[in-house]
Amino acid sequence: KAPMPGNILDVKVKVGDTVKAGTVLCVLEAMKMENEIPAPKDGKVAQVVVTKGATVGAGDTLVVLA
Questions:
Q1: What's residue 4's pLDDT?
Q2: What does the domain layout of the chain look like in residue ranges?
Q3: Whole-number Å distance between alpha carbons of 32 and 48
Q4: pLDDT one-digit tens code per residue, 10-65
C-alpha cells in the first residue's frame, strides 16, 4: 500500500515474479523525494495495480502478493 500520496515513477515487478520481503516493488515520488516501496513479505506477484505515471493516495494498493 502507498504510505503517502504521490506519483508512481517506476514499477519494478510484473505478475508472476517471486519476491522476498524487502524487494523493491515500485518507486513513489512524494514531496519531491523518491521512495522505494518494498515488499512487506515473501510471495509471488498476483497483480500489479498501478502503472508508471499513476497518481496514488495514501493507503492505495500498489501490488498484490499471493
A1: 96
A2: 6-65
A3: 24
A4: 999 999 999 999 999 999 999 999 999 999 999 999 999 999 999 999 999 999 99
Supply the pTM of this predicted model: 0.91
- CATH number given to 6-65: 2.40.50.100
- Spell out where the chain has E strands: 6-11, 18-19, 24-30, 33-38, 43-48, 55-56, 63-65
**One-letter identity of residue 51:** T
Name, in order, each residue with C-beta under 8 angstroms of 41's C-beta and a sequence gap of 6 or more: 21, 65
C-alpha cell at 12: 519494478
